[in-house]
Predict the structure.
Amino acid sequence: MRGALLSEERSSQLSYHSLPPRNQQQVLPTMSENSKFVHSQDSIFGLDITKEKCGWFGDRTPLVLGAKNDKQSLKRLKQKCHLGLPPHLRCAVWISSVARAANPQLPVTETDAYGTIGNKKSIESRWEFALNAVFPNPADRDDAVAPDLGLTQEVLNQLIHNDYPIPEEGAKQLTLVLCALQQVVGIEYSPTIPDIATLLLTHMPASYAYATLREMINDTSQFIPVSQKEYYSWCKSYEFYVQKQSSAHYKVMESCGALKPEGLDPIFKRFFTSMLKRKDVLHFMDIYLVEGCKAYFRLALSLIKLISKKELKALTLTDSESWWNEIRKKTFHSDFTLAKHLALMYPKAGKVVKLYPNRKMLRRALKYHEKWAADNMPIYVDETPPKPMGYIISDDKPITLAKPTIFRSNLAKWLPVSLKTTKLDLIYSTEIHGRSLAAFYNQCNRYKNTIVLIEAIVGNTTATIGMFASHAWNVNPASYGDGECFLFRVDPDPKCFNWTPDFSGIDDFESQAIREQYMVAKSDFLAMGANAEGTNGIRLDQDFINGESYSALGFDNEPLPGHDRNKFDIGVVEAYRLIREVDGSAVGEEEKVWDLYGL
């Protein structure tokens, strides 16, 4: 039902958009123009946003005219947001409102300036800094995978492809914002953010959406839960206030599971996007970005009041979704609008205290329920693929095999934790240094940790396979290395084969010696892993023309090029050292080791 309701609303959600032509020449503002508010821009659907006449907002600072002090200014701003903002000013008013709430120590004149043309360059430069920090290689931006921040990848994909749905360019903008929040701001769990970010992007460039969300994450603003403990505390606090507000509603919701954290997904994970018409969600955003979580709880508590006590008795509910579907029947009815519902959210003075928590009460409840949250929240496993390893761009050392983003994302996932924040630097390539094992050793013998990628060709099929070395590659009469070595295939069907010790307890010294042949570096071949038959997990000949791959003890790998593809022709071979992103130094770089080639 939810998908149908969202689709039904899509045309009405976007009917008010109209931007100036995108190819219009940008004119740099004069000093007098710096105080003008920026106009909204739809970065999700790419539609235009029309400028509307508005009697209660001007086109430049101050945001609120005629206020005698900051307190009166805030009161008037809330009143205007309750009426609903003109779409072309949402970008300016949203970011200025959040800045005001998140920075109460700043004068209103400064927070109002957040939404002006004069602040645009600052916002864009900070955004570009964040993008460069997350994506040192700009090409990776196109292939980035959006972190779900606790929403789960399945639900995030549903949000992007079904619920809105979002065009490809809009999905890219959303992905960049979510990646920056996770990797620059440090947000790991905040499942409300993807929907809020999407709504912001319907009226903002990505730079403004990122700046707005950064301010919302400020501790003093309390707009959204930004950790798993905070999220579960929000859920428990909502249950507490439902019980306090109406025992009848509490019993029904509790019996069908609608008050369990997972039962509250439509409210706290999806930001009402499946519960309200899109125009009503945007109207609520106008209010929420001024008032914060107080408005959030008011709406969540007032929605259940749409079902009367008489109607409660007639309900037959099987699960939490059936409860929220009953609410949707009310909110998606043609007679319902948020403007009318505000009378229930903001009743006359005297009734407010009994119905809804004020900011101070809510803060106490959220703090009180943090202990319950810590004791009851499940273990969170981030499903987001890791950030891909970056690589050093050099005209004289063009890379081939490590270029696909998904390859480098898998490598980052498989590397030891201490090496995940490194990037690749090409030190050997058959295309540059020639097909010679001697040249390979000469280029690699100074670097303790290296990744070798190999193009394995079997008939008409090609696979990209490789190995991670825990020690420097140099000719050695004995096998060496340690259990950090691993074998892998990045394409097709990516798999990693880590080394594991023998836990059988049987003292088989010969088998153990074979198992511990991590790295084998001879003058006539190079290998990793071994077995009792005398073959290796991966083995390359002296001229890098022929290779083979068999199952190796300890690695328990399948033939890396694929099933029954033990022998292969070698295409391109590339070796990479690892560079720390923090200081740009090479990992495990050593002075030139003794060259034992020829022993």
Notes: The radius of gyration is 30 Å. The longest strand covers residues 567-580.
